[in-house]
Amino acid sequence: MLQSPFDTERTKISTRLLAGRAFLVKTPPCSFYLKALTNWLITGSHGALVYGRPRLGKTSATRWVLRVLPELVGNVPNLEVPVRGQNIASERAFFQHLLRCARHRHAMTGTAGDKRDRLTEWLMARAIRSPVNTAVIFFDEAQLLQDCQYDWLLNMGNELDKAGCRLFCLLVGQSELAQTKAKFIDGGKEQIVGRFMVRELEFSGIRSEQELASCFKEFNYTIYPMETGTSFAANFIPKAIQSGFCLQELAPAFWSVFQEKWLSTGLGHDAAIPMHYINASLIGLLNSLVSHDRSELTVSHDLIAKSISASGYIESLQALKAGQQRRLNG
């Protein structure tokens, strides 16, 4: 059976959202993160660790923070770099990757030194125009960085310092980043720790019904796609939205199910729900409500529970519990 144009568009919206390519919403952890990064930048720090378990939304949160940051401190140029795992790190390949992320037209030519100089000049030209004389490199999956790569970044940072600029390395990744910091301290690499790792933030999931309601409120009032002028939720349940239905009304029921599944897995009393499963559950619910859209829309607890189960949330809790058990067993 062929999909209607409306079904096709909803599928695209759902896919883009889950891939993190539709729109970014402000969450309570995002607000805390923005405050922290602003403080790090205005107090002269050169780097920070932002870490946490998978699926919490660290990458999307970082993109949101960097997008909003200019409203607080002015233009701060930034470069997003997805870190590649390598068996043997090559200086030439490392700086070539960074130049390609910057879309530099001469990324592919020259020696390792040529590429490092190009990147340094590229960052310097942008940092010098910033109110805080800083350029940010956002390393995503930074736990994959190797020791020598930190040395290369340190050298480049020194060159920017000499020119009156600052390189700020925002190292975002899994919890192993905290172990990397401890390893450098034990190994006597205080210079790297002092430059890039003094500041740190353990990123959190959504921790309360109030925080979840705040997320749903952002979804409710976000316009997407922008060119349509339509709210995100109205792509799925236009009649209900037109009649005043608000997604945040669903927060108590959603939180009840999320927390009940968390507690039943034996993970303790402090639930922290990853944004991925909140997004997936909400998208699943909205898609299931398309055929039930009406002015007086009611959403059953059972339908919410089914959308959460279908998101993979329960399996993620089981994996998290298994990981905790392995660590306890040594």
From TrEMBL:
One Gene Ontology molecular-function label: ATP hydrolysis activity
InterPro entries in alphabetical order: AAA_22, P-loop_NTPase
Domain ORC1/DEAH AAA+ ATPase, chain residue ranges per copy: 49-179
Record-annotated membrane-spanning stretches: none
Pfam families from the UniProt entry: AAA_22 (PF13401)
Name by which UniProt lists this protein: ORC1/DEAH AAA+ ATPase domain-containing protein
Organism of derivation: Novimethylophilus kurashikiensis
Species classification: Bacteria, Pseudomonadati, Pseudomonadota, Betaproteobacteria, Nitrosomonadales
